[in-house]
Amino acid sequence: CDLIEFEEVVQRFPFVFCRGCVSTETETDFQSSPNQSAITKHPFLLFNITVNVSYIIRHTRLKSKAKIGYLAPDFTAKAVMPDGQFKDLKLSDYRGKYVVFFFYPLDFTFVCPTEIIAFSEAAEEFRKIGCEVIGASVDSHFSHFAWTNTPRKQGGLGTMKIPLVSDVRRTISTDYGVLKEDEGIAFRGLFIIDDKGILRQITINDLPVGRSVEETMRLVQAFQFTDKNGEVCPAGWKPGSDTIKPDPVSDLNSF
Questions:
Q1: Facing residues of 203 across strands?
Q2: Mean pLDDT in runs of 10 for the chain (255 residues)?
Q3: Which residues are catalytic?
Q4: Gap between the Cα atoms of 158 and 146, Å rounded
């Protein structure tokens, strides 16, 4: 890594380094550096520092681009649509609507179909509130197609009411911070994106546990309510429940 990167990493991750054993001088200046004796006596420290800096820089460069309050990372990718056709799906084409975008690990697995079918069956309810649902995995669109054309009694999905995106290059799952690098599959990430393309909510589950369609619906409705009314929703809020005005007096009255 270069000098600037090294200094940034030292500032951001001071716990990685041993006090008095790190030098950011040039090679010439290093000869007279007070740090020289420490590293000369303990050369393994320099090796550990190099390894740690390399690891941190590599992984901070690959960090998620998905940040709450910012535009969700856009993408264009092959997808199997509800009508069974292939299409280049572009996320930004959904502007003007809320989007529930969720990742699942792999086609033809066990927990995944329970989630995907549940979201598919709820697709019309989401559309009634101006929200679209999109699923994605690292499988090819051909695999998605085969899975949707396999009967549910035989481990397939059957007819779907939501598109399934193909992320065979792992670029989308990397941008959204859900790629499990050692296996090359996606964690169960779920992202709520508002009608302006802003990311409002992130949930990432480990592989064994599925997600709740009902809770996802509740969150979408809560964000839509706050968008429209400017009030905030307390824990467990559901449509029709009391909300809170963001001022000290109203806040006290809510307890």
A1: 190
A2: 46 45 40 46 45 43 82 98 97 98 94 91 98 98 96 92 98 97 96 98 94 95 86 63 56 49
A3: 112
A4: 10
* Tokens standing for residue 137: 């995995």
Q: How far apart are CA 96 and CA 130, in angstroms?
A: 8
Q: How many domains does the chain have?
A: 1
What's the rounded Cα separation, in Å, for the pair 255 and 252? 6
Task: Report if residue 246 sits inside a domain.
Answer: no
**Beta pairing class for 164-166 and 179-180:** unpaired
pLDDT of residue 216: 97
What's residue 23's pLDDT? Answer: 39
Task: Determine, yes or no, domain membership for 5.
Answer: no
Q: Calculate the alpha carbon distances from 151 to 54, 103, 155, 157 in Å.
A: 48, 22, 7, 6
Domain carrying residue 223:
78-229
- State the CB neighbour count (10 A cutoff) for residue 213: 20
- Provide the CATH number for the domain around residue 105: 3.40.30.10
- C-alpha Rg value of the chain to the nearest Å: 24
Q: Is residue 120 part of a domain?
A: yes
pLDDT of residue 244: 54
Confidence at residue 11, expressed as pLDDT on a 0 to 100 scale: 52
Any domain includes 48: no
